[in-house]
Design a protein that fits this description.
single chain, 7-stranded mixed β-sheet, 27% strand
């Protein structure tokens, strides 16, 4: 046996050499940041497979290709931020990027815990690599002037993320609520190049998943599942998988499944809405939707005579189309009456609903 002597400035460390390999670069693998008070920072190789056999839905593959292509083309660091409620595909996309990065020979480093001075440690890794901060806003909250502890906040990472500084790293950050991110990270593409916003699953994602995983004799439920997904705030893959499992294994209706599952259907939902008129005008309003109402009155604006405009819509039987931005589009046939006409939706082309973020925030943390 021989000793390996590691010298750092005036400090010498003696290591038994039989199990020691001296490398120029980190091998393409998955690592987790580790810290010990006496030894300092290190990287522990972990056994975690990203070779998921399940099919990818939505924009996972297109986002993966775009992020890695941009990383190859730019000279410095870039960051990609993934925000939205749990279970809607953020981590799935990040894992897929990591999987493809490893294929390209890049090491992937996970920072899963809070460590003081972690930025300085990451800066000492000179080779191109991927660094992942999952639930970044929880591990490293915003540091406010009123804080009286020694915890480092998000602003300690500003120089690390800066693309103009020396380095070649791809930073992937997931965040459940972008309201909890520093103002110096948002709208700063020089630090965080991409910001992918996740809401609820779209009707296309729900339909594709059900087509692949729901038993064929129950495919007639797919339109109803899409409608339910559009109505439930932050509808996630966890919810969808649970619904499909119940329908595949038990002879229940979808209403019976939803009543039994741990899913908050939210009959009352705070929304903003836009009314698209045939004249090309777009008017705005807000309110609380009650999905159990067969005739529900939406009201907005006032004319010079002080008259309020309104439309009567059928929410209980309405079919919805979920959009990627979290909005819901009400089919025209369910617009029953308007201020000017009593049938056929009057002068309205469509009504688009948006979650009211201030009232909606508490649902993002489910």
């Amino acid at each position: 046996m021989k000793n390996i002597i590691v010298k750092d400035e005036r400090n010498y460390q003696v290591i038994a050499g039989n199990a020691i390999s001296v490398l120029d670069t980190l091998p393409s693998s998955i690592y987790e940041v580790h810290y010990e008070r006496d030894a300092g920072f290190s990287l522990n190789e972990i056994e975690q497979a990203f070779n998921a056999t399940s099919k990818l839905y939505g924009e996972v593959e297109s986002i993966t290709g775009r992020v890695l292509s941009t990383f190859e083309k730019v000279e410095g660091n870039i960051g990609a931020l993934f925000t939205g409620p749990k279970g809607v595909g953020k981590s799935l996309t990040v894992r897929n990027i990591c999987k493809e990065a490893i294929k390209k020979g890049l090491p992937v480093i996970f920072a899963k815990k809070y460590f003081s001075n972690i930025s300085q440690f990451i800066e000492t890794i000179y080779q191109p690599c991927v660094v992942v901060f999952d639930e970044f806003e929880k591990i490293y909250p915003v540091r406010r002037p009123s804080d009286h502890n020694d915890l480092e906040g998000q602003e300690s990472f500003l120089n690390l993320f800066d693309s103009s500084l020396a380095g070649k790293k791809l930073f992937l950050l997931t965040c459940n609520d972008w309201f909890d991110l520093s103002q110096f990270l948002l709208n700063r593409p020089g630090r965080i190049h991409y910001h992918f916003r996740y809401h609820s699953l779209t009707a296309d994602e729900i339909s594709a998943y059900c087509t692949d995983n729901l038993v064929k004799e129950r495919h007639s439920f797919i339109p109803e599942i899409c409608t339910s997904g559009a109505r439930i705030p932050s509808f996630s893959y966890d919810m969808l998988r649970s619904m499909v499992f119940e329908l595949n294994n038990y002879n229940y209706s979808l209403d019976e499944v939803k009543k039994a599952l741990n899913i908050n259907a939210q009959e009352y939902t705070a929304i903003d809405f836009k009314v698209y008129l045939k004249s090309g005008e777009i008017v705005h309003g807000d309110g609380i939707l009650d999905f159990e109402q067969s005739e529900y009155s939406l009201r907005w604006g006032r004319s010079l005579r002080g008259k309020e405009y309104f439309a009567i819509v059928n929410l209980k039987q309405a079919r919805w189309t979920g959009n990627a931005d979290g909005s819901l589009v009400l089919d025209k046939e369910f617009i029953l009456k308007t201020e000017n006409k009593d049938e056929d939706g009057g002068d309205i082309e469509k009504i688009v609903f948006f979650p009211d973020r201030e009232h909606f925030r508490k649902w993002d943390h489910y």
